[in-house]
Amino acid sequence: MEDPKKLEEGFSNQKNNISEENIDTNRIDNNQDLVSHENDQKILSQPLQKKEEEEPIIKKGKRVATLDAFRGLTIVLMILVDDAGGAYACIDHSPWNGCTLADFVMPFFLFIVGVAIALALKRVPKVSAAIKKVTLRTLKLLFWGIILQGGYSHAPYDLAYGVDMKVIRWCGILQRIALVYLIVALIEILTTKLRPTTLTPGHFSIFTAYKWQWLGGFVAFVVYTTTIYGLYVPDWNFLVHDGDTSQRYTVKCGMRGHLGPACNAVGYVDRQVWGINHLYNQPVWARSKVCTLSYPETGPFRDDAPSWCRAPFEPEGLLSSISAIMSGTIGIHYGHVLIHFKGHGERLKQWISMGLGLLITAFILHFSDAIPLNKQLYSFSYVCFTAGNAGIVFSGLYILIDVLAMRIPFLWLEWIGMNAMLIFVMGAQGIFAGFINGWYFKNEDNNLVNWIQHHVFFDVWKSQRLGTLLYVIFAEITFWAVLAGILHRLGIYWKL
């Protein structure tokens, strides 16, 4: 297990090659900021240096409190929307255009990954070692992603494991994070020597200093935009299996630039690259008005529902993941600001102005119907809207935790953020609940988890919807917060 006093983003084992430093949140309210040691000043681009004692200061061996709290908040949101979204459709993923609470989870993850990369790679004395670490961590993320969301794990409801390789799902949450992490981190590593040693005066100096990172984000934008609007999508068909019978459906397309569910380039690319049998077979568009009378909840299909309502669609597919690189690019910019700017005011000015700019851009694109907000397509307006909100929330947490020193109310989020991978696997992916369900009496449904749900929450509150929400809050989120606090106290952390 790694020391919690070291930044965790995959590099803390390498003491001499890749140094990881975090903000001392106990002293940050005294206007102490980030700094490097004298022997590192030729490598790291820093703010204007008038006097050595005026440089921002960073204390080694401490974690970034806001970083952990934001990551913990994202894990909490994921558990809430995954396990209570079925009871409250208003917080579940939007069936197509629009943005709900659940739609913030993925971009928030990518945003904080970007922030953490900037801190973890502020100095890269040995490029080859850094690339090796990044590659190894990417492979670990891919491995766990396929195990947890590829169909191998059936937790928490089915006491079985294994997947037919003909239908394994290759994409997922961790796979998308792995791709974004790999691209953004490699750009950061390979451009270390191309950064200026000092920042020139001006609000936009931070952008020009890291122009290669922004160029990477722009390339992702160009690839995504040209493909989604320029790629021709032909007619396609799929099979739906129902017991021993199967029925083939055909979707008529023959068009370019379509942003609807049936004929978009995002789905076409995934069908061609992965194969239609390897896509997610329960897409959220099945809850849309044209598919079911139960909208926005899940229900039986309408008699006149279009054929694509029954088709698979990959929400974490290849083309949409290329677009997601922009979320990581914006996140790493926030990390660069944290490193280079002195004082709370300068950082917040940079963060909040960019967040508001992104939100304004998103509103214009969405409400003008130019580019609607769409998580499934990971549209550019969706990137701007979610990244803007991430920047505003991150700034808010920074003000509360680091500026106003209101750290105690957010300690539980920090604890969860410190053990994010453990809680993601055991909690959000249901591995721990699946383990508990394995100890049943007489039949598989007679287990501790179901007993607590029905007797402590459903029966007491006489409402399955309210009982589900309370169960998620108290039996899941509160449980994992307490456990994370205990593990933090014991110095136990699970890092990739």
From TrEMBL:
Entry keyword annotation includes Transferase: no
Segments of this protein annotated with the region Disordered: 1-31
UniProt xrefs under InterPro entries: HGSNAT_cat
UniProt key word Membrane: yes
Keyword annotations: Membrane, Transmembrane, Transmembrane helix
Endpoints of the signal sequence: none
Biased composition annotated in UniProt, kind: Polar residues: 11-20
Coiled coil: none
Pfam families per UniProt: HGSNAT_cat
Residues spanning the membrane: 69-89, 101-122, 134-155, 167-191, 212-232, 318-339, 351-368, 380-401, 422-441, 468-487
Residue intervals of the Heparan-alpha-glucosaminide N-acetyltransferase catalytic domain: 63-203
Descriptive protein name: Heparan-alpha-glucosaminide N-acetyltransferase catalytic domain-containing protein
Organism for this UniProt entry: Solanum lycopersicum (Tomato)
Source organism phylogeny: Eukaryota, Viridiplantae, Streptophyta, Embryophyta, Tracheophyta
